[in-house]
Amino acid sequence: MVRLITHNLLACHAKGCTSNNFPLQFKDIQIELREAEFNPDFLRGFIPRIEWGALTDAARQLGDTSLPSEPPDMLDDDFLQKLHHVLLEIHVEEGAMVCPNCGHVYPISNGIPNMLLAEHEIG
Fold first, then answer.
1. CB 26 within 8 A of CB 43
2. Subunit details for this protein (predicted)?
3. Given this model, what pLDDT does residue 123 score?
4. Calpha distance 94→112 (Å, rounded)
5. So where are the chain's domains?
6. Which CATH architecture fits 2-114?
7. Total-model pTM
8. Which residue has the higher pLDDT, 14 or 119?
């Protein structure tokens, strides 16, 4: 499933593409919203692993502007609910992710990203 919690960890791995290969940009996407169980402790523990700028940019690409440009000092329930929604409830079902450096396209079909490369693209 392509959710922003996963997207925040993905970079292009095409041969020779070693800089400016993160975050992948969404293109021609279709999203679906699905409720997920709210777990504030999980979110608090996961925040240090998030590349915040990439997350907020990706959320905006998907039409969600609820997150602040920087994570707040106070992790109150309102903020954690918004983070939960962005990370875990927005599912990209169709479309593509495109490398900002080399332009490689990673298609998304039925919610599954194809991160496989052709043999000549492997580094």
1. no
2. Interacts with TRM9.
3. 59
4. 8
5. 2-114
6. Single Sheet (2.20)
7. 0.90
8. 14
